[in-house]
Amino acid sequence: MKDMRLNNSRIDSVGPSALAFPAFAQDHGYRNIDSGKNCAWQKGHNTDQSAFEWLACHPKQLEEFDRWMTVQRADSGSFLEVFPFNINELLARSSQHVLVDVGGGVGHQCQALLDMYPQFKGRVILQDLPHVLEHALGTDGVETMTWDFWSSEQPVKHASFYYMRNICHDFSDQACQTILNHVKRAIGPKSKILIDEIVLAENNVHWRATQLDMLMMTCLGTGERTLRRWTELLQSVGLEIEGVYQYSETMGDSVIVVVPAE
């Protein structure tokens, strides 16, 4: 039954867009797609809404889609396996908050962090929209906070880490610039942004990663990024990459450590 619900998400939400993609691409001269409001999603669902707007109006499909997103890359590992948290240094800092999970959904990453580092209990914040946080896991030691990363700058100042998992791949570079600028204005001298996303290789990419890249273009008018494209995006908002820690060779899942450009 669980697998059937996950299949329903692919059929009801992704399926119509995938079927519409060949005709959409042909109609648009096979140009690169860079808008979530003008991609195969609209053609497949006969709507002018973006995927997220459409899902918000279809609770059943939204529930199935959220469940699918939670489990479909569960075998990819975790950034916690590779990122070197300096526990003593972090606990000694005057900043109360070790990690702010930006747009973190119901809090699976926060829970995993505290499972591995219980010393951070009470110093972790989960941020998302109200209707998402209603379903938060309620992990002891995790504070929930409503924040819309489109509308205002990050309210938590000078946290050690601002963690963003699978957010930027949902949006165009221009949209990501808005989000990153809102986060950037909150960082302090020792703050870093952790971007947990796929970093595509320039060639010989695994089929699973290219499949997801095509899915993002079909449904959201965006796609996964290579290291070059990540660098260009971050430089456009005055940020730079300090390091990249890959934890999935197949998918290219990595945590990108980001700091203000010098």
Key words describing this protein structure:
single chain; 10 helices; 8 strands; 262 residues; eight-stranded mixed sheet; alpha/beta
Q: Would you kindly provide a written description of the structure presented here, covering whatever features stand out?
A:
With 262 residues, the chain is α/β, with parallel strands linked by helices. The radius of gyration is 18 Å and the shape is globular. α7 (130-133) links the parallel β2 (124-128) and β3 (142-146). It starts with a helix and ends with a strand. Mean pLDDT is 90; it is low at 4-8. It has helices at 2-27, 40-45, 51-56, 59-71, 87-92, 108-116, 130-133, 173-184, 207-220, 227-235; strands at residues 99-102, 124-128, 142-146, 161-165, 192-200, 225-226, 239-246, 253-260. 34% of the residues are buried. It contains 10 helices and 8 strands. Strands 1, 2, 3, 4, 5, 6, 7 and 8 form an 8-stranded mixed sheet that branches. α1 packs across α4.
> Number of helix segments?
10
- Overall pLDDT metric: 90
Oligomer category: single chain
Shape: globular
Helix content: 40-55%
What is the ordering of alpha helices and beta strands? HHHHHEHEHEEHEHEHEE
> What is the distance, rounded to the nearest whole angstrom, between the alpha carbons of the first and last residues?
53 Å
Low-pLDDT runs: 4-8
Structural Rg: 18 Å
**Major sheet size, sense and barrel closure:** 8 strands, mixed
Classify the secondary structure makeup into a structural class.
alpha/beta
Number of strands: 8
